């Protein structure tokens, strides 16, 4: 088999998996083995595409000619390779986690859940491999539609309302703005292929570049630029594995990935800096970074807090794109990976806490760390990576984006990045701290109770209660440690990632 | 020998087979005759298309009387495209008739249905092939009269009022058309359409008779097309007609009427007269935009899904008229392309609803709740057709919108681009309401044990759904013919 076949297989396998999951619906064990095996095979297929890409090739797979000069085609370049790798790798981890979570939580409709999950991954890989803007648009829409049943998984009123917000914003923005931008690009440039250096230079009036950029940036609703970020917090009603993989990695990253693709391969970074069309975008992204962090501070629900944190972190990538220097673009691309590992760890932890102790609000988690030390320790690693401290991966991407801001002589955004890091500390570290400092509320009551009735056994009881570990199922805890350690590994091997991504700006 | 007479055969076959159905009486025999006649017409249409694409316009003199005195059958790219749509949809729908009819309690009158259906087919194809203006009116009346009968066959008693309403409006439309033909005859002394086109410049563009003829023709055709606000007859007719009739008429009848408008406005009167000396384009554009929005919004509030689709049809006609109003090759291409693509998507959707009706006896959105569990294939087909109706990429509906938006961009009309896109979003709403009910709601208690529709209903629906995707990816045939037809229409002016 040559590379082309692997590209096709990487997208087809999850779909074949979908059918097999459907057929093994009544047999949960078989169904979940199918999921895991499909995930592993898909990752291996994606991995097969890596060597030629590292060697500087762009493997191409053309499916059909939709219109003259417009193909349904897939072309793999480093940025897409990277996105496909993280999406397919984290799918394996999430599959294990989902087994623990969905069973631990006794969720209904699990077959539909696993089916839609597989379709979503297939379309995320298709987004990554897309060779032109129309192909990407199609995959992008499939991703939206396939995640809708996951968002409305609970089928209650709240889930339905959230589902409407979700589809409403994502479809309206993509059809109403993105598609118009794509058509305009096609009309002006006569092509939609992703081309190094962009395809728009000299094809549209300099004054209109801003309008075009606006259409693209707000058309890509998945990048959650304020004020069209509402769908992301709404999507948090979904089961946690969905929030973890799709709404911290696949879906949202598909958004910022598209942003980078558009800036690098449609506009061309030089064209944007020459015309100065992206200055407004820097400010909007910077404002989103800070505002979303501030909103996150006010949220007591852990998943909601993480969701706003994601909104803020996504705008790092948009900011990196808007700065459009070679440092910031590579930094933005790296941030996709770094944030993926960090945030998925945090969501896994939130889900593990929910399964083990049925707690969703941060204020209820006092002293919980003593009972779930592994989960909370992993949470700390993930949080530090998201904040951007060494020795964790997140520090590198912030570093490069800041360098990019310096390069572009937009020093104010270095300040934005630093303030944002402080805000991250302010909303993530208390979760961890609350877990370990101060006894649990019930425990305190228990102590008082014991003290009152049985003075002598007080200390023994206290020790027994405090050290009793009630962790989430192993299927939950192991995956979250895998991703937490991934954050550390990414710090150590960031140079390889940098080398892989460098060609996109050369 | 036989090949030379194909242009006549394509209409003669259904015309002869129609009375044959009545004579044979037995419902199986009538069904077989109707099926074979339709398929034979389709085969003729395909052969004719190939011929026209190869050698260009075909002219055939009926009975050997040379035009312009005898009746001429004249086929160019546009004619054969319409022929393909009508006979193609007919061929897919016909096998469906057997099962769909059984349920609607007209079994004992089945042969009447087949007879009326074949006459309707003959009339619609006759309109598409003829080169004679009066002949066109006659064929139009054949198709209209038989479609009144077909609609009145609906099991709901309201089908009778719906048919009557359509009869009144349709007759006014047809009368306007025949008045227009009469006036044209007075002004030019000929009935052959090509000949009228040649002689009109002599009669002069300021000739009052000609202007009156033009007005009567546009309004008359507009009534038959159901251009907003002349669409009042359409929602009831499509809703209460038997399901198979809704599918057939929605996919073909309005298309043929659009053809009449295109043929007269562009070929007979000519672009110079229709759009330069008369301000036709602006009113058409305004009406088209209104049609894209108002009926779409109404569709969002209907509870009967057939009615949703009927209002959606009025909206989709807006797109066709919009493309026509651009008066450019690109706009006409989009228009003609949408004739074809809309036939595919609406045909598919109405067939799906027929299958739904067959099992649960209703097309009410609340009754369809949770249906995806019991009838997965049927509802999957609905999703497929619905995606095409919205205009999602990889479906035929996307290709039409793509060309329509390109045509608007070519004119530099930004606001039209925005309007097209926004109106597609309304389509998302009304399609999605149905999908949400079927997939994400629980079935009513009495409808928990519904079986999947039989294969004879599913297969035709899925053929059309498949066609929606095929023509969304492989566009060389549909776009190729539409482009040639558009060029010849503009060139003729």
Explain the overall architecture.
- The complex is a heterodimer of chains A (506) and B (493).
- The two termini of chain A are 31 Å apart.
- Chain A is built from 21 helices and two strands.
- In chain A, a hairpin with a 2-residue loop joins β1 (60-67) and β2 (70-75).
- Chain A is globular and about 65 Å long.
- Helices cover 75% and strands 3% of the residues of chain A.
- Chain A has helices spanning 3-23, 28-54, 78-104, 110-129, 133-151, 157-189, 209-219, 231-234, 240-267, 269-275, 279-298, 302-323, 326-357, 368-371, 373-387, 394-407, 412-436, 441-453, 458-467, 474-492, 494-501; strands at 60-67, 70-75.
- Chain A has two domains: 1-268, no CATH class; 278-506, no CATH class.
- In chain A, α3 packs antiparallel against α20 (474-492).
- In chain A, strands 1-2 form a two-stranded antiparallel sheet.
- With 506 residues, chain A is an all-alpha fold.
- Chain B is mostly helical and 493 residues long.
- Chain B has a domain at 279-493.
- A two-stranded antiparallel sheet of chain B has the order 1-2.
- In chain B, α14 (329-360) crosses α20, α16 (376-390) runs parallel beside α19 (455-473) and α17 (396-411) packs antiparallel against α18 (414-440).
- The two termini of chain B are 35 Å apart.
- Chains A and B meet through β1, α5 and α6 of A and α17 and α18 of B.
């Amino acid at each position: 088999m040559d590379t082309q076949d692997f590209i096709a297989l990487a997208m087809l396998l999850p779909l074949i998996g979908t059918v097999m999951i459907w057929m093994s619906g009544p047999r949960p064990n078989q169904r979940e083995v199918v999921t895991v095996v499909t995930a592993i095979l898909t990752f291996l297929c994606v991995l097969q595409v890596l060597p030629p890409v590292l060697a500087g090739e762009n493997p191409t797979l053309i499916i059909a000619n939709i219109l003259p000069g417009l193909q349904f085609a897939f072309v793999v370049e480093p940025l897409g390779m990277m996105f496909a790798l993280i999406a397919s790798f984290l799918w394996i981890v999430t599959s294990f986690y989902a087994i623990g979570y969905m069973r631990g939580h006794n969720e209904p409709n699990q077959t539909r859940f696993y089916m839609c999950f597989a379709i979503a991954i297939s379309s995320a890989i298709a987004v990554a491999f897309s060779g032109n803007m129309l192909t990407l648009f199609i995959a992008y829409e499939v991703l939206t539609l396939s995640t809708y049943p996951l968002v409305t998984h609970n089928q209650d009123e709240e889930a339905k309302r959230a589902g409407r917000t979700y589809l409403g914003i994502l479809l309206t923005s993509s059809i109403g703005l993105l598609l118009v931008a794509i058509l305009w690009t096609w009309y002006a440039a006569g092509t939609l292929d992703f081309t190094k250096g962009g395809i728009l230079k000299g094809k549209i009036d300099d004054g209109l570049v801003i309008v075009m950029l606006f259409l693209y940036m707000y058309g890509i609703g998945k990048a959650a630029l304020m004020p069209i970020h509402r769908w992301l917090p709404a999507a948090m009603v979904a089961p946690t594995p969905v929030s973890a993989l799709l709404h911290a990695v696949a879906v949202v990253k598909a958004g910022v990935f598209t942003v980078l693709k558009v800036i690098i391969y449609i506009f061309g970074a030089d064209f944007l800096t020459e015309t100065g069309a992206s200055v407004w975008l820097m400010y909007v992204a910077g404002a989103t970074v800070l505002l979303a962090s501030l909103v996150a501070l006010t949220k007591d629900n852990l998943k909601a807090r993480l969701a706003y944190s994601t909104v803020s972190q996504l705008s790092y990538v948009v900011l990196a794109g808007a700065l459009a220097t070679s440092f910031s673009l590579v930094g933005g691309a790296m941030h996709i990976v770094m944030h993926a590992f960090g945030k998925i760890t945090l969501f896994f932890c939130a889900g593990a806490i929910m399964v083990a102790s049925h707690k969703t609000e941060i204020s209820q988690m006092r002293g919980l760390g003593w009972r779930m030390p592994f989960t909370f320790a992993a949470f700390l690693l993930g949080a530090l990576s998201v904040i951007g401290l060494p020795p964790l991966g997140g520090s590198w991407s912030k570093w490069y984006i800041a360098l990019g801001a310096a390069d572009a002589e937009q020093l104010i955004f270095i300040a934005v990045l630093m303030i944002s890091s402080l805000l991250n500390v302010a909303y993530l570290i208390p979760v961890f701290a609350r877990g370990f400092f101060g006894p649990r509320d019930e425990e305190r009551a228990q102590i008082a109770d014991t003290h009152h009735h049985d003075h002598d056994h007080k200390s023994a009881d206290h020790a027994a209660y405090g050290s009793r570990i009630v962790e989430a199922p192993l299927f939950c805890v192991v995956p979250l440690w895998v991703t937490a350690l991934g954050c550390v590994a990414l710090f150590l091997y960031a140079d390889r990632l940098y080398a892989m991504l460098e060609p996109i700006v050369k | 020998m036989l090949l030379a007479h194909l242009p006549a055969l394509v209409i003669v076959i259904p015309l002869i087979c129609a009375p044959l159905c009545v004579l044979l009486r037995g419902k199986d025999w009538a069904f077989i005759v109707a099926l074979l006649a339709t398929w034979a017409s389709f085969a003729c249409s395909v052969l004719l298309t190939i011929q026209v694409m190869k050698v260009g316009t075909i002219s055939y003199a009926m009975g050997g009387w040379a035009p312009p005195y005898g009746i001429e059958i004249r086929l160019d790219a546009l004619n054969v495209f319409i022929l393909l749509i009508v006979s193609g949809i007919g061929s897919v729908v016909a096998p469906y008739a057997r099962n769909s009819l059984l349920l609607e309690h007209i079994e004992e009158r089945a042969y009447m249905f087949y007879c009326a259906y074949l006459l309707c087919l003959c009339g619609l194809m006759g309109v598409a092939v003829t080169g004679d203006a009066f002949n066109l009116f006659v064929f139009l009346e054949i198709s209209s009269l038989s479609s009144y009968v077909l609609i009145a066959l609906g099991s709901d008693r309201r089908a009778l009022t719906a048919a009557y309403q359509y009869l009144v409006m349709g007759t006014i439309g047809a009368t306007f058309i025949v008045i227009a033909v009469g006036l044209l005859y007075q002004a030019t002394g000929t009935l052959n359409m090509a000949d009228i086109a040649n002689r009109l410049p002599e009669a002069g563009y300021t000739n009052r008779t000609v202007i009156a003829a033009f007005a009567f023709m546009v309004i008359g055709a507009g009534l038959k097309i159901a251009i907003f606000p002349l669409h009042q007859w359409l929602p009831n007719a499509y809703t209460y007609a038997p399901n198979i009739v809704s599918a057939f008429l929605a996919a073909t009848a309005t298309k043929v009427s659009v053809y009449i408008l295109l043929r007269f406005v562009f070929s007979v009167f000519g672009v110079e007269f229709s759009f330069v000396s008369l301000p036709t384009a602006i009113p058409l554009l305004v009406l088209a935009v209104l049609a894209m929005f108002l009926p779409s919004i109404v569709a969002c509030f209907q509870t009967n899904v057939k009615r949703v689709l009927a209002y959606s049809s009025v909206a989709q006609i807006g797109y066709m008229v919009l493309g026509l109003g651009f008066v450019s090759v690109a706009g006409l291409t989009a228009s003609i392309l949408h004739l074809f693509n809309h036939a595919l998507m609406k045909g598919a959707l109405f067939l799906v609803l027929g299958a739904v009706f067959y099992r649960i006896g209703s097309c009410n959105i609340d009754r369809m709740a949770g249906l995806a569990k019991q009838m997965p294939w049927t509802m999957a087909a609905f999703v497929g057709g619905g995606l095409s109706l919205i205009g999602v990429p990889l479906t035929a509906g996307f290709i039409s919108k793509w060309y329509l938006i390109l045509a608007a961009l070519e004119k530099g009309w930004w606001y039209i681009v925005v309007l097209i896109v926004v109106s597609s979003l309304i389509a998302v709403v009304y399609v999605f309401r149905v999908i949400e009910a079927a997939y994400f709601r629980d079935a009513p208690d009495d409808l928990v044990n519904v079986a999947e529709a039989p294969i004879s209903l599913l297969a035709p629906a899925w053929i059309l759904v498949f066609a929606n995707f095929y023509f969304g990816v492989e566009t060389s045939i549909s776009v190729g013919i539409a482009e040639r037809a558009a060029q010849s229409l503009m060139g003729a002016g």
